[in-house]
Amino acid sequence: MKGFQFSKFLPNERPKGGFDEMLKLFTQLLNYTAGDAGEALAWMNELDKQYKFTNNDYGMGDFMEDLKEKGYLTEENGETKITAKTEQTIRQSALEEIFGKLKKAGKGNHNSNISGIGEEKNADRREFNFGDSLDQIDMTASIHNAQINHGIGNFTLTERDLEVEEKDYKTLTSTVLMIDISHSMILYGEDRITPAKKTAMALAELIRTKYPKDTLDIVVFGNDAWPITIKDLSYLQVGPYHTNTFAGLELATDLLRRRKTHNKQIFMITDGKPTCLKENGRYYKNSVGLDRKVIAKTLNMAAQCKRLNIPITTFMIAKDPYLQQFVRQFTEINGGRAFYSSLNGLGEYIFEDYIKNRRRTVR
Fold first, then answer.
1. Angle of helix 193-210 relative to helix 84-104, nearest 10 degrees?
2. Which of 56, 61, 75, 76 has its CA nearest to residue 22?
3. What is the C-alpha to C-alpha distance for residues 211 and 239, in angstroms, rounded to an integer?
4. Looking at the domain that runs over 173-357, which CATH code has it been given?
5. Helix or strand or coil: residue 1?
6. What is the CA radius of gyration of the chain?
7. Strands (E), 45-168
């Protein structure tokens, strides 16, 4: 009979000490402090008092010195700041946290079911046809065919000996990720901006490292909309803004018009209703209800995206039934999709949808 051995439960959420473990905690805290290194280190000091993850051999002072020596921190005008190396580490950490869950679940394959000129070889073989690209020819197999067909003594290679290697076609995709930074993203005691920010960083790092021919633009929208760089994500914060969804969609559409790829899409992360427009340099605002004027312009923009073959996938992180009803109407007009996601599942939703959308056939 097989027995069981029990041991004392030791929670593994806290760092075990040492630079690598403490760096993981430091990068996580930077997400919540919008890249403020001083505040993140202050939090670590408080956590150390409670959980005692430093010891007599390695203390917080040693960790801070190591951060500087290894290029994670720098001093500018007496202020401690993170470096580009730290920004990349934060993105990589977000990628491992979110995309790692998908890989464990066996997801992430984005090949289409169409064979032809492409990037990845598959097991299919066929005879050469006029018009096939030369880089598709399997020269080893073709020479072998020639030896079988014509003998070794007088080597001859004809068109009929050529064997072509099929490849899986991968579509190139241009994506705009829209992030709502209106004040409601931190209201009601719930931090909604940090999961959105981490997802954007992870998606940016995935595209940069695994799909470098794809493009990702990031747009934030409050009273207005403006593009930000990947570098800006570490420092992104919510502002005292209303929600000008129309401006965000208008800017996203303009960015995608400039892209030459066949597949174009918009991912929009929001928790609230459109409440703002900008007309003749003045803001028209109504945060009380679903204002007809604001909603009409927003829905017209969704229809325009549909005419441009730009689907919009909305990730709604609010549960109000009347807001979800608006999202359903918006989605129906655009012909896109909507997910009513929890904050914990936001990253997985977006990653699955991004990879799935790369399967579409280019015509």
1. 90
2. 61
3. 32
4. 3.40.50.410
5. coil
6. 26
7. 73-76, 79-82, 115-116, 120-127, 163-168
Query: pLDDT tens digit string along 261-281?
Result: 888 999 998 887 899 999 999
Q: Are 162 and 129 contacting, i.e. CB atoms less than 8 angstroms apart?
A: no
At 166 the pLDDT is 66
- Could you report the per-residue pLDDT of 17-50, keeping only the tens digit for each? 689 889 999 999 999 999 999 999 999 999 988 8
Q: Which residue has the tokens 């559409």?
A: 253
Contacts of 5 (CB under 8 A, 6+ apart): none
From the CB of residue 278, how many other CB atoms can be counted at a distance below 10 Å?
15
Share of the chain above pLDDT 90, in %: 42
Indicate the pLDDT class of residue 104, thresholds 50, 70 and 90.
low
78 vs 228, more confident = 228
Domain boundaries, the chain: 19-82, 117-168, 173-357
Tokens of 17: 């000490």
Q: Supply 188's token pair.
A: 């009601």
User: In terms of Cα–Cα distance, which of 139, 136, 193, 197 is closest to 169?
Assistant: 136
